[in-house]
Structures are given as structure tokens and as C-alpha cells.
């Protein structure tokens, strides 16, 4: 798209969510290096997050992590955030820092631990009610270290049971975002290790359950934009946890290790018109002569209707399964999970009948997912990072700018020319069109955008000149500095 006014308007509408924990002290397992002026409570974290928004203009949301951000009055925290121009975003559950969770939380073989974990997840939904949060973000540290340690399949059943209970508790306009991670802290199995597992659970649950892609949670070399494209097609991409990594889950600043990857991811998002809720379709980077002649098919994004293909094949990927419907209706366990048990084996005929019914019933399935789309808002573009050695507020500002640069470049892709080259099988030209956008220096455009928004063109410099860092360093004396995991 070459229409710079439309590019700038899209950039103004695209919002980035900040993690409260990025403002607290953090470190590796070897050392936590404290920083002066670190917030002592969630209110002060919100003050710091508000600074990031103040200088970037596109980060008005702060995610919280419970119990790290436990307060007596969540409505008061929410009001404090609002008074500072931001709002509370995703509520992140923490079922990984308690002795009871040594063998897992919702997948633990001990029902007592599972019960405790579930109670925490439900408490997080109570908190969402108080803060007005849309998203419950679930990441489970559950897994095993040794072959034979526990039953892989039984752990999936336990997970499904807990997720169904939480799902049933979600109110209107609330979503459950399930995050996967390849390994760590467990080293043999992880109970939600990949997007396939997360997607199966989310599909079984229904429209309010979606997958979170944390960019640091894959094996080296994994093509993350492919995953993003597929999740977008299936209407199941709920959000991102952005960060960057060189080796494993490094949680470095997004765009620091691989800005090209970030661009490729955002290219998929822009194409799917999923940059923000209500992103106009023109913004799917359509320009040039080819735009009108080559392929005018409506792009399909997370909350757009899937295209209907003549053979009906595309409906399969969007259709929530029959078991999901029955889970929504009566809490029955998802078919793909029950099918593992002995009871399920005895019941193959019924299962087969079920599948046939599901296939015959795609229209109904579509109708089921429609309200989810209607109630389901857009993708959450969250950061999930730690700043162990660099100052935290400017690091968050830099991260927001890095995301913005990737988005701007993705918006600059000449989609018409790209499609034309693709359809003509012109490999080199198609690649060149994409690379042209990536190689554009978008910093002047972003500086101009900020000035239009009444902001300083260089947010980091403006923050550093503001004296805020010195102010918090002198004021935040006493109390306990907040810390990752503290
Ligand atoms: C996990 C995961 C979660 C985050 C925690 C702190 O690895 O990425 O999103 O809440 O770390
Ligand atoms: Mn994460």
C-alpha cells in the first residue's frame, strides 16, 4: 500500500499491550540486577506503563500477572490506570510458582493441586470482571522431566477438564488465550508445547478460546509466520506475546534479534486485515493496477467470515467441532480427548456417527462460530519481555517502536504487485516486492506520524529528557521493589 495517509491512520489505530512485569526487577537464574526507581506496587507499574504510552501514543494497555500484581481493590487499580490514560489488559494467571505445582498445575496427578490451580484460574476471571479486562492469558509450566514420569494422554484429559471449567466461567466479551511453549521448565514433555496442541484445545472449547503466539516459544528455525497465517485462517489467533530470542525463551526486546521475522509476521496480519478491529479491507495493502483485476477476494481474518470455496474445504478448518458445540451446551468432554480412553474405544460407532453428524453440519458449525466472532474482539498485540540489564521504561518504548516499524513496513507492501508476481509465478519479482517494503526506512514516516499525533518524533530521547527516571529514582525509596517472580 502506497497511500501514506492510510498507512499512518492504520499505525495510529494499531495498539500494543505492555506487560506489567517488564517494569519490575528481573534477571536470570544466576542474578537479578536491581535498578533504581523500580516500581514497588502495581500502581507504580501502571504509572511507568503510562509513560510508554505518553511518548509512543500507541500503547494504552497494561497486562497484569497474578499474584505478582495482586491488589486489594482491582477496580481501584483499573481506575488508577484510566486516570493515567491507559487501561488494564490481559490478566495472566500464574500457576507455576507454588510448591504444590512441582508436578504440574491443572495436569498434576494430584487432584488437590489441580483444584488449587483451577481456583486460581477462576479467581483471575473474577479479577477480569473487576478490571474490565477482555483476556485471560493462560500459560502452563506443566510437563514432565522423565519418560514414564506421568501419563502424557491422561495429562491432556486433566488439562481439557480444567480449561472447560474456566471456559464455562467466561462472561460475554471475555476470552481465554492459550499460550504454548516448546519446553522449560520441563525438559521431557510439556503439556501445551505447540500450536497444534493449543489449537486442538481451543477448537474443542469454542469461539471464546484462542491461541497466543509467543515469539520466543518455538524451536530454532520454526517458521512462525506460517503458524500465524494458519491461525488467522482458522479464526483462532487471539494474540501475540512479542519478544525476541537468539537461543531459547530469551525474552529480549522484540525486533532486536530478528526484525525481518517480525516484519514477515506482521505482513500476514496486515494481509488478513487483522491489525485492529475494523481495519478497512483496503488496508490489506492493495494497490497498483493488479489490485482490481487480479484477486479481489475478500481477505479472511480472525473475525471475518471465511471464504466459501466451491468444494467446501475451507469450512473444515473454521468449523468448530461437534464436540465443541456439545461442550458449550453441556460441558461434555471434547471428542478428540475422550477418544483416547477405553470407554471411547468401546464407543467407536457412536463416535463415528458423531463425526458424520459434524461433517453434515458445517452450516450449523459456522453459525456457532459466528457469535464468537461477533463477541470476539481483535488480536492482542502484547509484549512479554524482561529487561535484565537495560533500563526498563526506555526499553519498552524502544520495543513499541520496533513493532511499529515492522507494522509500517508490512503496510508498505505493494500487495497488488505482489499478487501479480505470485500469480505469474515470478519468484524473483514477488520476493523483490516484499523486500522493497522491508528495506524501506520507515523512521522518517514514523517521526512524522508522531508529530501529527502531537508527540515528540523521537520517543526515547523525549522520555530521557523528561526527568521521569530521575524522579522515580529519588521518590521510590523504601518499600519492596517489584520483581519478576517476587
Ligand atoms: C512464560 C510465558 C508467559 C509469561 C511468563 C512470565 O514463559 O511467556 O506468557 O506470563 O513466562
Ligand atoms: Mn509469553
Annotation keywords:
486 residues, alpha/beta, eight-stranded parallel β-sheet, two-stranded antiparallel sheet, 47% helix, binds beta-L-rhamnopyranose, binds manganese (II) ion
Walk me through what this model shows.
- By secondary structure, the chain is of the alpha/beta class.
- The chain is 47% helix and 9% strand.
- The chain contains 21 helices and ten strands.
- The strands form two sheets. The protein has an eight-stranded parallel beta sheet.
- It is globular and about 60 Å long.
- The chain starts with a helix and ends in an 11-residue tail after the last helix.
- The structure holds beta-L-rhamnopyranose and manganese (II) ion.
- The site of beta-L-rhamnopyranose (RM4) has 9 residues, from loops.
What is the element layout, followed by pairings?
Layout: H1 4-13, E1 17-19, H2 42-56, E2 61-66, H3 74-83, E3 87-93, H4 111-131, E4 135-139, E5 143-144, H5 152-169, E6 175-179, E7 189-190, H6 195-205, E8 209-214, H7 224-233, E9 237-242, H8 259-271, H9 290-293, H10 313-318, H11 322-330, H12 335-338, H13 342-346, H14 348-360, H15 362-375, E10 380-383, H16 392-411, H17 415-423, H18 427-438, H19 443-452, H20 459-466, H21 468-475
Parallel strand pairs: 1-2, 2-3, 3-4, 4-6, 6-8, 8-9, 9-10
Antiparallel strand pairs: 5-7
Helix pairs in contact: 1-16, 2-16, 2-20, 4-5, 7-8, 8-16, 16-20, 17-18
The structure holds beta-L-rhamnopyranose (RM4) and manganese (II) ion.
Manganese (II) ion is lined by residues 139, 179, 214, 241, 384.
